[in-house]
Amino acid sequence: MLYRNFNKEFNFITSRSSGKGGQHVNKTNTKVELRFNVKNSELLNEDEKKLLFKNLKTKINNDGILQIVSQKSRSQVKNKKSCVNKFYEILEEALKIPKKRTKTKRSRKSILKRLENKKQHSEKKERRKKDF
């Protein structure tokens, strides 16, 4: 869980949203785009930045900016909150370090069971052959 407040590093851009809303859509800027500059972030250390660039390479552009867009609601404030929530979810998921897999050896019983099954299968195939 991240306990840092990135709000001062957010850059919000609003524009007209597409979709339902009638005349409301044509005169209000409800679509919100959150832009976060990963390269210039003061709250992330270098290791975290590398991890973000690795895990979010499809969401971060060439300038190092992570863009998140929301236009679900007819309210700009709700869309802004939605963008911020999405940002924290994406960041938390991207900064998770996967557990390393520990190699395990197959048990003797499982090896013998596999060989026994192979043997039975080959015997079954052998019995199907016709004698000439």
In short:
This protein is α+β, with helices and mostly antiparallel strands and 132 residues long. It contains four helices and three strands.
Task: Please describe the topology of this protein.
Blueprint: E1 10-15, H1 23-27, E2 31-37, H2 46-55, E3 65-70, H3 76-94, H4 108-128
Antiparallel strand pairs: 1-2, 2-3
The rounded Rg comes to 28 Å
pLDDT averaged residue by residue: 87
Largest sheet: 3 strands, antiparallel
Described by its quaternary structure, the protein is single chain
* Number of beta strands: 3
- Which CATH C-level class of the domain at 7-94 is it? Alpha Beta
In spatial order, strands of the major sheet run 1-2-3
Task: Describe the structure in your own words.
The longest helix is centred in the C-terminal third of the chain and has 21 residues, at 108-128. The radius of gyration is 28 Å and the shape is elongated. The protein is an alpha+beta fold. The chain has helices at residues 23-27, 46-55, 76-94, 108-128, and strands at 10-15, 31-37, 65-70. It has 4 helices and 3 strands, in the order βαβαβαα. It has a domain at 7-94: Double Stranded RNA Binding Domain, CATH 3.30.160.20. It is 42% helix and 14% strand. Strands 1-2-3 form a 3-stranded antiparallel sheet, with helices on one face.
Give the tags.
alpha+beta, 3 strands, 3-stranded antiparallel beta sheet, 132 residues, elongated, Double Stranded RNA Binding Domain
